[in-house]
């Protein structure tokens, strides 16, 4: 059974406030060269009552996604992210294992 940790994220909102979320995640492996950890988000552990509904909907879709996090994130520090990461630009959260080769569309 993989190690499980809590990962804390915040996203900067257009009004200057921050949306905060904590996820229970499985630690898959450590990438020594980049000092980062591959994790799979399993369960949202935070109430999103104060988060704008459009943003909360994106956050609720994250369980099951793969993400690389720095060691600081594994050690409990909150990871500040741009709102664009929820929209896939840049691609921070991945729906498939990023270690696998990309699938080819015909």
Model description:
The chain is mainly beta and 106 residues long. It has one domain (4-94). It has two helices and six strands. It has helices at 53-60, 71-74, and strands at residues 4-12, 18-31, 36-44, 66-70, 79-82, 93-94. The chain has a six-stranded mixed sheet. Strand 2 (18-31) and strand 3 form a beta hairpin. 13% of the residues are buried. The model has no long low-confidence stretch (mean pLDDT 94).
Kindly report the average pLDDT value.
94
Strand adjacency order, main sheet = 5-1-2-3-4-6
Overall geometry: globular
Q: Could you tell me the strand content as a percent range? A: 35-45%
Write down how many β-strands occur, each being a DSSP E stretch of 2 or more residues: 6
Which H/E pattern describes the elements? EEEHEHEE
Low-pLDDT windows of residues: none
What is the alpha-carbon Rg in Å? Answer: 14 Å
Measured between the Cα atoms of the first and last residue, the distance is 36 Å
Question: What is the domain total for the residues?
Answer: 1
Number of helices: 2
Taking the sheet with the most strands, its summary is:
6 strands, mixed
Give the structural class: mainly beta
Q: What share of residues is helical?
A: 10-25%
Layout of strands and helices, then pairs:
Layout: E1 4-12, E2 18-31, E3 36-44, H1 53-60, E4 66-70, H2 71-74, E5 79-82, E6 93-94
Parallel strand pairs: 1-5
Antiparallel strand pairs: 1-2, 2-3, 3-4, 4-6
Q: Nutshell version of this structure?
A:
By secondary structure, the chain is mostly beta strands. 11% of the residues lie in helices and 41% in strands.
